[in-house]
Write a structure and sequence with these properties.
The chain is mainly alpha-helical. The protein has one domain (about 40-185). The chain contains eight helices and no strands. It has helices at about 35-40, 55-60, 65-75, 80-85, 90-115, 135-145, 150-155, 165-185. Helix 4 (about 80-85) packs antiparallel against helix 6. The protein is globular and about 55 Å long. Residues about 1-15 have low confidence and may be disordered.
């Protein structure tokens, strides 16, 4: 007699969100301009519905005292909204706890310089893993549009064809750290000892 396979309910399939995803009916858009949009001067509008929700000159000021507006604007875009609300995986949380706030500052700054600091990276668009990577900085980069030079260009007004300046690295570091401190508010200043997650047998 054949044995019946036991079905395991894994819950709903996770929503796959990409940089060009949108859900305009729920006010979640995509502001990355297509070639056609650039040709007819429609840069800054949602590529699906045409909504203009972001005061781009204000965001391009890169004024940290006005970062709350920048974060509000970022959350109008579906991919950014997703990363502001997705659960951060436990390995990434533990990484942040080990580093602490001061260690995270150094790690974020170093990560930005290495992953998006140079001009015209042939690997651009693929250098920052999506969720589940075990690194909280990746979440912060996607949430604050510092994940690749394409996103940095249209969100922060910094051209792709030159290296980021020290001031620009610092600005993006502060945005990423604001995200991390909001999402992980209980981090210690200097880090703590956190045992590694062991795989169950």
């Amino acid at each position: 007699m054949a044995r019946k396979k036991k079905l395991v309910d894994l819950g709903p399939t996770p929503l796959k969100v990409t940089c060009t995803s949108s859900d305009c009916e729920n006010d979640l858009h995509c502001f990355r301009a297509t070639k056609q949009m650039k040709a007819v001067n429609q840069v800054g509008a949602c590529r699906e519905c045409g909504a203009r929700l972001v005061d781009w000159p204000r965001v391009y000021e890169k004024d940290l005292t006005d970062a709350s507006y920048t974060f509000t604007a970022l959350k109008f875009e579906m991919i950014r909204h997703h990363f502001w609300h997705i659960e951060i995986d436990q390995k990434a949380v533990n990484y942040a706890r080990r580093k602490g706030v001061s260690g995270l500052y150094d790690a974020v700054r170093s990560r930005l310089r290495k992953s998006v600091g140079r001009a015209n990276d042939p690997f651009d668009g693929r250098q920052t893993p999506m969720a589940g990577s075990g690194n909280p900085i990746h979440y912060a980069q996607h949430a604050t549009a510092s994940c690749c030079r394409k996103c940095i260009e249209y969100w922060h007004g910094i051209p792709q064809n030159r290296s980021l300046t020290d001031d620009e690295i610092e600005y993006l570091t502060e945005l990423a750290m604001s995200y991390l401190l909001e999402r992980l508010p209980d981090l210690s200043s200097g880090g703590e000892n956190v045992p590694p997650i062991r795989m169950s047998k």
